[in-house]
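A quick word before the example. In earlier lectures we treated sequence and structure as two separate objects. From today on, think of them as two lines of the same record. Here is FYVE-type domain-containing protein written that way.
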Amino acid sequence: MAGPEKKLERSKSGLRMIPVSEADTSPFCLPEPPWVPDGECKQCQNCRGKFDFFKRRKHHCRRCGRCFCNDCCQEKVNLPRMQFLDPVRHCQVCTEVSRKEEEFFDKHLKSLQNGGYFSVCDSDIGPDDASMFFTKLSPNHRHLLFEGDSDKHEPILIEKIETLQILPSGKDDEGNTIAGGIAIKYKDTTGGINVIKMMVDSGGNRKPGQIWIASMQKAFKMLYDARAK
Ligand SMILES: [Zn+2]
Ligand SMILES: [Zn+2]
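And the structure line, produced from the sequence above:
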């Protein structure tokens, strides 16, 4: 499925590919940080080397906005959370964070968008009235969508998810909990609190559903970490 319409925009840090409509901004995106003003940094914020126009020049980390010498800020890394088209300059601390996030964008985000089959019920109804839905993340990453043959379920706004709980279904050979499903507590469009239970389709291959649940946990953690800042 095609994503939202996007445009190229030039910022002080490089070219960014951003949605034409602000309403399509991914909840996984972060704003660009303000840069530490040139006048306020006399030395590198990592190695403390004094800046000198000829020998040691200033560079800003595109992720944290702090000021470093070239040696401490020379890595060019992909930064999909700020929607840069090309890899951009990172300090050492931020390099590690962005490298870890690359896996989320390359793997987990795709798994969420590819979707999976789940038996879904609202917690106040109970498993007897569960319906089968194909559940996936919308192209702009903002909603969980539920596609059913007969039943309907309202989309869940990703930013309105309050808790995720893994529903175990036994343990594997190594004693790790096997995810049988997931319970999602969220605020609906009227502001009411709902809980839905999504169980992995037990009739078929359980692996895609379990991978989807693991990716959902990663997504929730990323959003939570961003909120906590
Ligand atoms: Zn330095
Ligand atoms: Zn940084």
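Notice the following. The longest strand covers residues 161-171. We will return to this example when we discuss secondary structure assignment.
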